[in-house]
User: Fold this.
Amino acid sequence: MTAQEAPENPGNGATWGNQTAENAENTTYVTEVDQTLRVLEWRYDSEEEMVYIEFESDESKTVTVTEARQFEAGASKGRIKQKQIPEGTSKVKLPVKPTAGKAGVSITTPESIDNGSYTVLSTGIGESETPFHRTGSPSGWFGGAFTAVAMMGAAAYKVRNEEHGDVVTVE
Assistant:
């Protein structure tokens, strides 16, 4: 599972990122931001609306973490945090407002910007909820078939119980 796929949910409103690769020292990490910076672990706490990220860096560097969310049309603002992190492991946290129950951040360093790239950590992209979001295709077919049979039954009942009077033959 990559850092951009939906991670497992450990409960209590927290979502943890899965670890997927290894560096030269056999330390497991989620993803590389650039050649010298890796995300070791991350989680999103939906109750606190906060993302927690643990980095491992081979050198001191500036890391920028930006709230990544779907904005509506027009002007809006988001959250951004820039932090100088030392060589070794460091932790960063950033408040992140969820959109449709999902949240994410983008991460950049001067090196990743020079390379024209960024890293995204996300709980997943949610589909917009409709009144039928929990309904599947079989439910629609069975519901439609039931409605059709009920309407045919009502029509047959009305025809059977209606007084027809005399039959007129048209010549």
In short: The first strand starts at residue 14 and ends at 16. Confidence is low (pLDDT under 50) at residues 1-24. Residues 134-164 form one domain. The two ends are 78 Å apart (CA to CA).
